[in-house]
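User: Predict the complex.
Assistant: Input components as received:
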Amino acid sequence: MVEDYDVAIIGGGPAGSTAATLLSKAGRRVIVLEREKFPRFHIGESLLPFSMQTFTRLGLQEKLRAHFVEKFGGEIAEAGGEKAAKFYFKDGFASRTDRSYQVTRSKFDKMLLDHAGEAGAEICEETSVDDVMFDDGGVTLRIRDLNQAGVADPRYRKIGPELRAKYLIDASGRNSVIGNKFKLKKSYQHLQKLSLFAHYEGVEREAGIDGTLTRMVRTLDSWFWVIPLENNRTSIGIVLEAADFKKSGLSAEQFFERAIAEQPLVRNRIGGGRRVSQVYTAADFSYRSQKLAGDRWLLAGDAAGFIDPVFSSGVFLAVLAGEQAADVLHDVLDHPKRVRRLFRHYERLVNRAMDVYLRFVESWYAGKEFVEVFLTPTQLFQIPPAVNAVLGGNVGNRFAIRWRMELFYLIVRLQRKWTLCPRLSLVPKTDREAAPLNPASI
Ligand SMILES: Cc1cc2nc3c(=O)[nH]c(=O)nc-3n(C[C@H](O)[C@H](O)[C@H](O)COP(=O)(O)OP(=O)(O)OC[C@H]3O[C@@H](n4cnc5c(N)ncnc54)[C@H](O)[C@@H]3O)c2cc1C
């Protein structure tokens, strides 16, 4: 028998789980098809405070607080060690909350997926969606059972090889089932980055809330993250041009260890800490789907687009899209005639949120000027609280934030021609002494 659902969701990451929980709570019949068995490793550990409202709506706050490190802001430092700036979410323009979380994703994603199950969604792990076929009445999913030993599990229920749903949410992450099927993925050629990362234990932390911040160290041609996690673990990663890694001829481990050894700010922070995981690599290529909605489908999370992780926006965008997709489909299931208008609204909203981060990211990578301006203290027109708000996930259309962001970008552009803010080398001091810098960059 081919079973029929209101909504089928491909992928049990944050986007899929969020949508599944909300639709199930609203009384819809939902199935999540996830090809992995959770917990599974995933990168993307630093969350933004603007997701907190959604976590409250999902009923997750208590579980999150019990398991993860609360995060109160961030710090951006330049590799030369001359300047660094901390920012706290409480100071963001129209700040709604002063905190979010730093999470081990394997644990976080499992918590969200289990929560969706508790809310009533049917969860099928180790189940791959291999194809989807649309018709006027809905969608047929062709699925493959990857579960070898599952028959021994009392909760195991064989489904497929096909199932039907009225609507589909593709939350399959960077695997982008629909994006690949309809060739919708458009990559940003100027953002072809690569990440190397690992977990450490025993890394030094500051006392109090400063010990919860995500720390970023910006070098001339790369940046590092240092993210404090629970159980004395710390995630450390570097993002760089994919071509630079390829050129080096080194293994991921050799490259990563060398990169850290060359950066005193990161090296000193690790201090006596030690690496406790392998060095992972992830292609970090930014892309966007040219369409986020079709007759019977919506794309959510990385399946809709992936913007470079520098401002930790991925899970925020995934949760935002998951929530919006759930609300839109709940409405459409009652009022099918509204589908076009509501899907258009969804597409606009998610695209606008991604645009905010794309612009931020492009400015960050365009040169040193973003960091030079960011690290220069100013109270001018309350620009820092506006930048802080966007860093926290405030991507609403508030005019008060928009014009301040425009001014920020204008100053960054002007800094390219004139020295409005002190110039920074972004090179560690010892290296600068060994090889004098190009005077133009001083
Ligand atoms: C280097 C790096 C660092 C990052 N750092 C951060 C950070 O600090 N903070 C942050 O917020 N974000 C960060 N991100 C981004 C973040 O990882 C993603 O944006 C986020 O995981 C997206 O969630 P999602 O639910 O859309 O997709 P995912 O979490 O990727 O979930 C998609 C799921 O779909 C499943 N799936 C795929 N194909 C199929 C199929 N055919 N059938 C069934 N299941 C399928 C997958 O197994 C997966 O579990 C980072 C990303 C990178 C690359």
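The radius of gyration is 22 Å.
Let me know if you want any component modeled separately.
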